UniProtKB/TrEMBL annotation:
Residues 285-330 form the GCN5-related N-acetyltransferase-like domain. The keyword Ribonucleoprotein does not apply. GO terms for cellular component: cytoplasm. The keyword Signal does not apply. InterPro entries: GNAT-like (IPR041065), HAD-like_sf (IPR036412), HAD-SF_hydro_IIA (IPR006357), HAD_sf (IPR023214). One of its GO terms (molecular function) is phosphatase activity. This is HAD superfamily hydrolase (TIGR01450 family). Keywords: Hydrolase. Transmembrane segments: none annotated. SUPFAM superfamilies: HAD-like. PANTHER family: 4-NITROPHENYLPHOSPHATASE-RELATED (PTHR19288), D-GLYCEROL 3-PHOSPHATE PHOSPHATASE (PTHR19288:SF95).
Length: 338
């Protein structure tokens, strides 16, 4: 793996990596709607020998429910192929809290199941004197549950969040995520929680251990969670441009959030990925070229694939930033994904 830049693959990722750690919202589906190319890309990746584990920061649902939804979208999935932030949060609890202790769960059924499976007594009130509060997203959460969490944290309970995503994609747009709800508790208490979800690599490592994989690939749509988690976990990350983070975001990405590979959608698992190379002051990728001059990004050509221009722009902007001359964001246009 290269330092903080893009890499190339001689073969399709489905043939170079033995396991794909695939995010859900914005990658495999959007809300309850399918994403073009997702079912086809994942089916063919499996046919080429790549195993799949769906890794999600959503802690509200049971793995069985996630598997059922994927199967209904023509992505056949078993519960053992799903790793949720609820499971990771329960594992994080176990690092400090002994089985049998009382834990206040603020979240959905998936979180309660995962915490109970680790041997904890689940309570619903701060007056039950829980030693920890574990908080995950659920659409039915309201002020009363957030207030109980705040009361318990103020009394010394350890606050564990399943994830800190500020937003989540739905069929109607982006809605407040668990991080926004956690923020309400933080605002009331002044206490920052521990987080089990991405960008912490906990879930990725659990999934890799479960699968016994040797060369995993992280596939996600968010730079600040999926791809940052890949970087922090020492894994290769593929950014698909079907969700939250855009191609323009790739160009402006901080080193710790940069993808190693970029694709329009999950069909990117099925083709080799070129790597940009320097050429006479430009970074060139199959005919697409980019350079940074006096802080301004300049683009030329289109390449064999629209993503080639994104790759060239990333290489030029990242090289300039790493040399101490960040690109002016005003010169970075919205780049096509397909």
């Amino acid at each position: 793996m290269s330092g903080a830049g893009l890499i190339g693959t001689g073969l399709a990722p489905a043939e170079e990596f033995d396991l794909a750690l695939v995010d859900l919202d914005g990658v495999a589906y959007r809300g309850h709607e399918p994403i073009d190319g997702a079912a086809e890309g994942l089916a063919e990746a499996r046919a080429r020998g790549m195993r799949l584990v769906f890794v999600t920061n959503n802690a509200s649902r049971e793995p069985e429910a996630v598997a059922e939804q994927l199967t209904g979208l023509r992505i056949p999935t078993s519960r053992d192929e799903v790793m949720t932030a609820a499971q990771a949060a329960a594992e994080l609890l176990a690092t400090r809290v002994a089985p049998g202790e009382r834990v206040l769960v603020v979240g959905g059924a998936g979180l309660s199941t995962a915490v109970r499976a680790k041997g904890y007594e689940i309570v619903a009130s701060a007056d039950d004197e829980p030693v920890a509060v574990v908080q995950g997203f659920a659409p039915e959460l309201g002020w009363a549950q957030l207030a109980e969490a705040a009361y318990a944290v103020q009394r010394g309970a350890w606050h564990v969040a399943s994830n800190l995503d500020l937003s989540l994609p739905t069929a109607r747009g982006y809605a407040p995520g668990n991080g926004s709800l956690v923020g309400a508790v933080v605002a009331a208490t002044g206490v920052q929680p521990a987080s089990a979800g991405k960008p912490a690599p906990t879930m990725y490592r659990l999934a890799v251990e479960r699968a016994g994989a040797q060369r995993p690939l992280v596939v996600g749509d968010r730079l600040d969670t999926d791809l940052a988690g890949a970087r922090s976990g020492g894994m290769v990350g593929l950014h698909v441009l079907t969700g939250v983070s855009s191609a323009r975001d790739d160009v402006l990405a901080a080193p710790g959030e940069r993808p190693h590979l970029i694709g329009a959608d999950l069909l990117a698992l099925l083709v080799p990925h070129p790597v940009p190379a320097p050429d006479a002051g430009w970074w060139v990728c199959r005919g697409a070229a980019a350079r940074v001059v006096d802080g301004g990004l300049e683009l030329r050509g289109g390449g064999e694939d629209p993503v080639d221009l994104v790759r060239a722009a990333c290489a030029a902007a990242w090289a300039s930033a790493d040399a101490g001359s960040p690109v002016d964001p005003a010169t970075v246009p919205d780049l096509p994904a397909s």
